[in-house]
């Protein structure tokens, strides 16, 4: 599982594995409520908690990458593969520091990630994205990256004190462009 190189990626944007020394960069988005309001995980409140997460979850994870600008992490992207009978599918998640929003970076990262994920995890036959219905920006990212909208899952998750409608998207290996 090497670093992703993609001719379609935006200049200066690349994906690479996290290192423990990325912890302060990681806090820039993972410690920001404006970013995490649309995520199912909670805002990181201290550097130590983030370092533990990098060490115990991110670095050993089967596919978790830093979205980098000139090799400096400005966001994260990962796929969580299913287990047992769900092994054919994985759920993609991503987040970007708010100062970089609106430049096409997440779309570029998702496009690069999807190709890499299918190459690195050959058992995966489907990548899905589950997006809060109110998160229009993330839905647009998946649409621009070529995902298919499959529908609305009503009252699907209770997260952060609220029961949410979820828009579900998917991408299959046969939909990769050469
Ligand atoms: C969602 C997120 C990753 C998008 O990153 P980004 O780099 O700004 O995304 P892009 O620039 O590639 O594309 C964003 C698109 O959404 C559109 N958009 C943004 N906010 C929108 C809104 N409220 N309504 C409609 N469209 C919106 C943008 O105009 C753009 O589309 P366009 O290129 O057609 O103009 C980023 O905002 C983020 O980290 N949000 C918080 C975490 C999160 O939501 N993660 C996903 C959980 S499913």
A few lines on this structure:
This protein has 178 residues and is an alpha+beta fold. The chain has five helices and seven strands. The protein has a seven-stranded mixed beta sheet, sandwiched between helices.
Can you put this structure into words, describing what you see?
- With 178 residues, the protein is α+β, with helices and mostly antiparallel strands.
- It has a single domain, classed as Aminopeptidase (3-Layer(aba) Sandwich).
- The protein is 28% helix and 33% strand.
- It contains 5 helices and 7 strands, in the order βαααβββαβαββ.
- Strands 1-2-3-4-5-7-6 form a 7-stranded mixed beta sheet, with helices on both faces.
- A hairpin with a 7-residue loop joins strand 3 and strand 4.
- Helix 1 packs across helix 3.
- The radius of gyration is 15 Å and the shape is globular.
- The two termini are 20 Å apart.
- Bound molecules: coenzyme A.
- The site of coenzyme A (COA) has 20 residues, from strand 4, helix 4 and helix 5.
> What proportion of the residues is helical, as a percent range?
25-40%
How would the global form be characterised?
A: globular
The CATH architecture = 3-Layer(aba) Sandwich
List bound small molecules.
Answer: coenzyme A
How can the largest sheet be summarized? Answer: 7 strands, mixed
Number of extended strands: 7
The CATH class is identified as Alpha Beta
What is the CATH superfamily classification? Gcn5-related N-acetyltransferase (GNAT)
Helix-strand pattern: EHHHEEEHEHEE
Q: Bin the strand percentage.
A: 25-35%
N-C termini distance: 20 Å
The CATH topology comes to: Aminopeptidase
Count up the helices. Answer: 5
User: In the residues, how many domains can be counted?
Assistant: 1
* CA-based gyration radius: 15 Å
Query: What topology, given as strand order, has the largest sheet?
Result: 1-2-3-4-5-7-6
Task: Tell me the structural class.
Answer: alpha+beta
Write down the overall mean pLDDT: 95
Runs with pLDDT <50, length 5+? none
């Amino acid at each position: 599982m090497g670093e992703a190189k993609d001719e379609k990626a935006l200049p200066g944007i690349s994906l690479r594995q996290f290192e423990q020394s990325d912890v302060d960069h990681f806090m820039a988005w993972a410690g920001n409520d404006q970013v995490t309001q649309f995520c199912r995980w909670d805002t990181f409140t201290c550097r130590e908690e983030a370092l533990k997460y990098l060490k115990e979850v991110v670095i050993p994870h089967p596919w978790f990458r830093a979205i980098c600008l000139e090799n400096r992490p400005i966001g994260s992207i990962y796929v969580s593969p299913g287990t047992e009978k769900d092994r054919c599918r994985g759920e993609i998640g991503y987040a970007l520091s708010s100062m970089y929003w609106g430049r096409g970076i997440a779309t570029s990262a998702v496009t690069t990630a999807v190709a890499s994920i299918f190459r690195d995890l050959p058992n995966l036959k489907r990548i899905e994205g589950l997006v809060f219905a109110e998160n229009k920006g993330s839905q647009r990212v998946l649409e621009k990256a070529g995902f298919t909208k499959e529908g609305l899952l009503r009252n699907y998750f209770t997260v952060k004190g609220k029961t949410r409608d979820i828009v579900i998207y998917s991408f299959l290996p046969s939909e990769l462009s050469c």
